Amino acid sequence: MNGDALALVNPRHPLAEEGRPHLAAPDARFPRVLMERRAAARLRACIARVGGQGQIVPVSGFRSRAEQQAIWESTLAAEGEAFTRRYVALPGCSEHQTGLAIDLALAAEHIDFVRPHFPTQGVCGAFRRAAPRFGFILRYPPHKQAITSIAHEPWHFRYVGAPHALFMQERGLCLEEYLELVHAHPWGTPPLRLDTPAGAYQVGYLPGDAPAPPPEEGWHMQPDNCGGRVLIRRHERRRAV
Ligand SMILES: [Zn+2]
What is the torsional sign of CA 172, 174, 175, 177? Predict the structure, then answer.
């Protein structure tokens, strides 16, 4: 489990401080596009699974706050404020700063950096179907803009880990909605059950600075950038997938 894989970063939950995660390139042909190491490895595996090497291009991964600021300013100058507010997150509020987000494009001579073309058919469609098993969600789906504050972005994927991703996909939840559900299961009350093709898990929540459960209970803790920690543990032996 990645420690920060469930961090919620949006206009209401900016990153408190800039950390620089351990980074790796998911595709060696694009050494400047980096992700958090575990997310990079899972993205590489997912692209390989669907035979997408050379066809699926990582366009933008980890960005520092300064890089996000530069993208905001250049998009503002070129496209105006309405477009920029629709498609570019404010500096401090972009999940690209976590290293867990990736923008993908179908390989082409000219790739739009802000709105890459990543269709729903062919190898890109195969990637979309496989992504949750490798821990990725389509972060800004259609019909969720009122909740996410970001327009539909068919190119932007976010690593959250397979159990969470599979559950969110099955229930049709975006990350904000999923965390709201998790927050309703504080530790000590019956946990949320995730029965997924990647195995069965229990999920609970520690709000604020509530004391952690004893280590022998086997919970992993994942800070959510909302002031608390998500708890997750295996519920039974993992089934083959
Ligand atoms: Zn993006």
Answer: negative
Query: What's the rounded Cα separation, in Å, for the pair 70 and 68?
Result: 5
| CB-count burial class (<10 Å; 0-12, 13-18, 19+) for 189 | exposed
Q: Which residues are the active-site residues?
A: 153
Q: Has residue 101 been placed in a domain?
A: yes
Number of domains the chain is built from: 1
234 inside domain: no
Question: How many other CB atoms are there within 10 angstroms of residue 195's CB atom?
Answer: 14
pLDDT tens-digit readout, 60-91: 999 999 999 999 999 999 999 999 988 888 89
Contact criterion met (CB below 8 Å) for 175 and 158 = yes
Q: Read off the pLDDT of residues 84-106 as tens digits, 9 standing for 90 and up.
A: 988 888 899 999 999 999 999 99
Give the Å distance between the CA of 197 and the centre of ligand 1: 27
Residue 34 placed within a domain: yes
The Å distance, Cα 156 to ligand 1 centre, comes to 5
